[in-house]
Amino acid sequence: MLDYAIPAREYALVFATAALITYLITGLVRLVAVRIGAVSPIRDRDVHQVPKPRMGGVAVYLGVAAGILMAYQLPALSKAFTSSSEILGVLAAGGLICLVGVIDDRFDLDAITKLAGQILAAGVLVLFGVQWIQVWLPSEGGGTVFVLSQIQGLLVTVLITLVLTNAMNFIDGLDGLLAGVATISAAGVFTFSMYQLVATQDDSAASQAPLIAAVLMGACLGFLPHNFYPARIFLGDSGSMFIGLTMAAAIVSAGGKLDPSVSTFGPRGTIALLAPLIVVVAVVFIPVLDFLLALIRRTKEGRHPFSADKQHLHHRMLNIGHTHRQAVLIFYLWALVLTGTAVSLAFLSWQVAVIPALIGVAVALMFSLWPRIRARRLTRRRVEETV
To answer: Per the structure, how many domains does the chain have?
Structure first.
């Protein structure tokens, strides 16, 4: 494993290219969005108080495309293109889902039409070779590898793509929230997939995922200065759906081809072979938790499960006393803890990884609840002073 030379400079170059192009082109995309009327209206559940242009996903897509084009020109990273069409699949499917998102950002498509576009884009990914091929399942003998049929692989890939696409859409509720969480999640996927590449030393099968994650991480980071509070432009559905699809492609590319023999490298334990699925869970944990809580809350109140309200997790963070920026930074912390814990299974046994994970959860909980803790302390102090 130590014989493999990581092309760090090349990865840094494609990361920087994606970040720079996204940063520079976002201003132009903002002007186009305003000109064509792709502007977010003010709804009762929204946090922003003035209309803001959407369509930021176009800038993110162009940044990713620029990073991929740069990678194609580099000696080491170009191997990801010669052995597989997965990278081209990300561009094709990403362009399709981004187009659907742009139409939605301008004309507000219905949910069925967007779902059809998501399924079609996921199918394009599969056509270009982005498909979950095998799953490691724990068993009494230490575990077995279950090779999926073509139909099973198709269904698993489409399901993961739909979950991640809609999860990213669901979390996009505060300025800079999705762009920052996606940057952290992409960094986690990059770290995990890079470990797989180094462990297997297989440029033909393991070089696509880290490249996809690197350009996505760069593009999201380049967009963040325009999107952090107070945002000048929103990602819109064009951004949230594209980010979700690209994240799904990176995870499927890394985890769907995982070689169980990699467990012989380093300190990885048996449970570490489930790391790809755990990374998926970590990435979608916050939005899925929010979604489930919303379903329970609305059902108990006798309302439609999919009706809108202002009681999402990010609304609650604001309600208990956090500022807009504080709430976003706390979500970043949670994303860092969850993703870091999932990825750490590639390097540590779960017995070792659980300790920093618990510490991270405790710290995140403390910061999340700090306004209430401080309010109770002030109330107690006032009571004591009056006595």
So the answer is: 1
